[in-house]
């Protein structure tokens, strides 16, 4: 596992609620996250590639207004390099997760590498006779997001990810100062502070 993968997995496992609150507030408001649980990230073997797939983060939570005990599985993948067939990979993970748990799934991809791209978030299976399926997922392209949106926040996840957002060289010091102010106000324990500090780029 690369440092990037490890950092993102630790961040999302430790601050899952805060991630949704910062970037998907509608989802955050709808779910009872006090009773969420993380599910096994090891999926079925891929018979074509010959390896066993492992997702980054899979969590399950109930809806607050839940008359039929309805739950939602949230699958998050963090990607730090461009991958041509990434939407297909997300669909394969989605299919495996559904086969394993048979519950509704909300897929989310976080693109954290430098440079601005328009990453696709759709995978289509079609024939001349029928468009059999269109699969979509939420995407976050951090390099397209403005750090200023989160500069006055009090959220450990948005603070951690600010240094991967869109800013110019003249703003580097301001980004760092905003990060340090937020970290001071959050008053996290040493272990979690150290983990979040791993996202901060050197000036």
UniProtKB/TrEMBL annotation:
It comes from the Bacteria. PANTHER family: SLL1691 PROTEIN. This is Rpn family recombination-promoting nuclease/putative transposase. It comes from Sporolactobacillus kofuensis.
